[in-house]
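PROTEIN DESIGN WORKSHEET
SECTION A - STRUCTURE
LENGTH: 310
TOKENS:
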């Protein structure tokens, strides 16, 4: 990519989008296109059509999506399916129509079957049933992947798809009704410490294992993919290491400074037993994460204290 390329980052105010903006700016890319929902609703095809016709971006990064944790995904499947399909279909279609040179679609590790082999290779896609609690979101993301691949096969479009693992970092969602596990645990531990509670109730058994990647590491991987990866085949983005939810909770409590007892509520769902991505393809391109989990949680907690807790 050229430093002067006009790059549209869809979803720039979210955790992923804002990390992409930080990374691109730090690398000297100055012609960045951003629009918040009040100025461009990506669900509105007419608005998206007008935007692409007027702005003519050279590169598009599709980081906009309706996202949430187990509870939100399970409670609102219609919204997760319909809204994500509308966003994806509009952006991908009009990126092609306006002759965008390259598009990066960001999917999710939840596209893979609930009982996929571990670590999960890209070839596991559509090889088994999905995790029921986030099936609607996963199906929407799979549709986005297949649409990008269809444009590549039928029209030769350079549309690529990356599948990030569980992400965390600045601008994460700390709303306990809709947040993902790391952000929810961090907020719960902070509030328990602030109230001087002696117990902290955590959903599930603590046994499932998850992989966590700091969003700034994802942003660096995305830039590498935009510069070096041109295959329509999906590529995983992760750190190649996982941790149990129990270990994660203990680590977060240590960082936050909560020393009370952990109570595990086994009546709540665990979700997929294990989710670790095979990152062989990404490593072969020369990329490796740079932010250790403990350091990343520490940075995220500092951001939380400065921007959310108050």
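SECTION B - SEQUENCE
RESIDUE ASSIGNMENT:
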């Amino acid at each position: 990519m050229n430093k002067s390329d006009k790059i549209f980052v869809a979803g720039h105010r979210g955790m992923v989008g804002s990390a992409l903006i930080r990374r691109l700016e730090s690398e000297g890319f100055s012609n960045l296109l951003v629009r918040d929902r009040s100025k461009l609703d990506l669900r509105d095809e007419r608005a998206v059509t007008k935007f692409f016709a007027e702005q003519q971006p050279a590169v598009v990064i599709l980081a906009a999506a309706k996202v949430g944790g187990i509870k939100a995904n399970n409670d609102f499947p219609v919204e997760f399916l319909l809204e994500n399909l509308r966003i994806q279909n509009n952006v991908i279609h009009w990126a092609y129509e306006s002759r965008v040179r390259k598009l990066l679609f960001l999917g999710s590790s939840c596209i893979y079957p609930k009982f996929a082999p571990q670590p999960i290779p890209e070839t596991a896609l559509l090889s088994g049933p999905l995790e029921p609690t986030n099936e609607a979101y996963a199906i929407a993301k799979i549709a986005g992947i297949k649409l990008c691949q269809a444009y590549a096969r039928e029209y030769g479009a350079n549309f690529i798809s990356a599948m990030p693992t569980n992400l965390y970092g600045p601008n994460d969602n700390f709303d306990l009704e809709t947040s993902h596990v790391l952000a929810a645990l961090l907020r719960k531990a902070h509030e328990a410490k602030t109230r001087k509670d002696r117990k902290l109730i955590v959903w599930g058994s603590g046994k499932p294992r998850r992989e966590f990647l700091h969003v700034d590491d994802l942003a660096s991987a995305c830039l590498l993919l935009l510069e070096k990866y041109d295959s329509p085949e999906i590529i995983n983005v992760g750190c190649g290491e996982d941790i149990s939810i129990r270990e994660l909770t203990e680590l977060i409590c240590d960082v936050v400074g909560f020393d009370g007892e952990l109570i595990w509520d086994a009546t709540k769902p665990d979700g997929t037993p294990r989710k670790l991505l095979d990152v062989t393809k990404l490593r072969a391109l020369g990329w490796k994460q740079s932010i250790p989990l403990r350091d990343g949680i520490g940075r995220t907690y500092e951001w939380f204290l400065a921007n959310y807790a108050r």
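SECTION C - NOTES
DSSP finds ten helices and 13 strands in the chain.
The radius of gyration is 19 Å.
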